[in-house]
Amino acid sequence: MEKLEIIESSEAMYDVIVLGAGIVGSSAAYQAQRAGNKTLLIEQFAFGHSLGSSHGGSRVIRHQYGNERMPEYAEWMPEAYEEWEHLEQVSGETLLNLTGGTSLFAKGHSPEACLENLRDNQVPHTLLTNEEATAKYPMIRFGSEIEWVLEEASMGAVYADRCLRVTVEQFIARGGVLKDGDQVVSIAENSENGVVTVKTKKESFEGRKLIICAGTWINQLLQPLGVKLDVKITKITICYWKETDDSMKMPTTQFHYDTNMYLIPEMEHKGYVKFLLHEGPEIENPEDSKRTDQEKNESVKQDMDCLKEAVKRKFPFLNPEPEFIDHCRYTMSPDAHFVLDKLPGYKNIVAGAAFSGHGFKMAPVSGKILKHLALDESVKYNISKMNIQRLLVPL
Q1: SS3 117
Q2: Are 210 and 286 in contact (CB under 8 A)?
Q3: Theoretical Cys-Cys bridge with 295: which of 182, 201, 213, 291, CB 3.0 to 4.6 Å?
Q4: Do residues 233 and 286 make contact, with C-beta atoms less than 8 angstroms apart?
């Protein structure tokens, strides 16, 4: 990622301080600054690093949500598309690649929840039978186990690295301040005036409001404040397969199997598609970001075997072996819902967490909600399932 021009500031007091310059933290900072609040964004690593969940060239974007517990997120998606389009307009850069997409439903996996969410939000879509999909998409072998294929023309991907860079560029252009490469060592809220002091290894800052979006490091920042969340970190294997027939361009594809998988068309490497499992082995150390040859345990082998088997059976126009392999880390809650809430026992500290797996595409809306919560503004969406109390564990 290109290095940003970081503007220094001598501000003694910020309206909002945001910790964590991943896509959600950066979006929260941008939304706060955009609304006229003097905002500071602090990142412990160099901006655009690959140690979290926001790096890489692409992420799936879609309106549909297939889990009956998650109509809330489907309601956010029209605004999320609008926010990404707004960033495209103000930056002059392309952030969306709406290829159209297919969601494959194996027998025993109903498309009804997706259909309800799409209908409720008036999103154009088509439900195809196996036979209809086979005739329309010769690049995919659906097989007898696929019963339904749901088409969504607005499905596709966002250019992830570019989205993050543009978000922070627009934040800085509006007067926001980014401090990267500086680790937080303490956080304290003054019980009398509510001012929050954030001390880093290099400096000390004061703010009227604090938003914490630390990704896999969330508990490292919250535990000194007396809060610990029941979240887990998993390593996700991401593979890139070369296309063998340029005329057979793949649609963005989601698999509704017992194990969910995603395929994203060529965006990061010319002539290659990105294919990944939606799950992976759990890790404990948030800084354990890469697997070496010695670390390839049985869980990793199972991930790779699952992806290879799917390519062999479903995508005849891809090479049978991946040529590039990368990894990403998910920070997930047990119920797959986010955390968007005030920190218990604190007046002016807000936490955002557990966005991995499905949070990138709606980051502008999550960021806006965090800004509303921090500034004690009303939130128009139902975020009751995203309360922090459900995930509190004893220290």
Answers
A1: helix
A2: no
A3: 291
A4: yes
- Cα–Cα distance for residue pair 60/336, rounded to 1 Å: 17
Question: How far is residue 65's CA from residue 70's CA, in Å, rounded to a whole number?
Answer: 7
Q: Would you state the pLDDT for residue 67?
A: 62
From residue 127, alpha-carbon distances to 5, 148, 149, 152, 394 in Å are: 47, 7, 6, 9, 46
> Rounded to whole angstroms, how far apart are CA atoms 281 and 297?
10
Q: Which of 50-64, 66-80, 105-119, 349-363 has the lowest mean pLDDT?
A: 66-80
CA 165, 241, 46 angle in degrees (round to 5)? 25
Q: What domains, with CATH codes, occur in the chain?
A: 14-54+161-229+337-391 (3.50.50.60), 100-155+232-332 (3.30.9.10)
346 within 8 A of 225, measured Cβ to Cβ: yes
Q: Which of 239, 189, 186, 224 has its CA nearest to residue 209?
A: 189
342 DSSP β-pair partners: 350
Element (H, E) at 39: strand 39-43
- DSSP-derived pairing of the beta strands 177-180 and 184-189: unpaired
CA neighbor of 311 nearest in space, from 357, 255, 246: 255
Answer whether 0.90 is exceeded by the pTM: yes
| Tally of residues, the chain | 395
Backbone angles phi, psi at 157, to 5 degrees: -150, 160
The separation between CA 218 and the C-alpha centre of its own chain, rounded to angstroms, equals 15
- Residue 177 pLDDT > 80: yes
pLDDT (tens digit per residue) in 200-225: 999 999 999 999 999 999 999 999 99
The phi-psi region of residue 90 (left if phi > 0; otherwise alpha if psi is between -120 and 50; otherwise beta) is: alpha
Residue 112's nearest CA partner among 62, 76, 66 is 66
